[in-house]
Every structure is written in structure tokens, then in C-alpha cells.
Amino acid sequence: MACPPGAPATNVVVVGGSAGALKALRTILSTLPAELEAAVLVTLHTAPAGPGLTADILGRATALHVAFPVGVELLRNGHVYVAPPNRHLQITAHCAETTQKRSSTIRGPLWTSCSAPRHTSTARR
Hints:
Number of strands: 7
Helix content: 10-25%
């Protein structure tokens, strides 16, 4: 699926942890301004068949828009994209996309896609 049109996020912040990291994530997100010039991607170890409340819990702690990505979504400033239960989250061409989880490790496609070398231009337009 292709990335939707629009202006992509200026920067990307990636955070991950175990289920016990939820409190720390709430604290981090509560300090970020609503006009944050970055997209935030979050992946946590959670029960595969869990109710998927992570986005709701984090959303109550911040002024940022928090949600599970649906399909392929353009990364937008001021948005938090949370990996749904039993899914991986990855970045492809300025978009967040979920894929079926094939392993139980946190080091999945999100970490691989974020660490891949990227060409960036510092030229002003």
C-alpha cells in the first residue's frame, strides 16, 4: 500500500520497552507539547491477545494525538503511533505501517527501519 500524500513529520522519535515501561512512557509523553515537530513511534511488549488499551492509556497522558496506525499512515508532527498487540510497527517512506508479528523480540522492523541509512538534505528551500 502506498503512503498517503501530505507533508510528512519533520522528525521522528522512537521509543520501546516492556509492558512495565508504560508508566515511564506516560511521563515522557506528558511533557511533550501538542505542537511537537516530530512523530513519535512506540512499541511495547504486551500480551498478543490483550485488549489493546495502550493507545488509550497513553492518550490520556498527553495533548498529542495517540492511536494505533490503520494500514499505512503518513507520519505527522504531533502524532504518536503505537504498535497494536501482536503487530510490528515499521517506517516506510515517511509512513507508519503495521505488519504481522513473527517474533517475540522488541527488536523488530521498527528498529531495523529506523536504523537504516537515510539520505537527508540540509538545504533550505
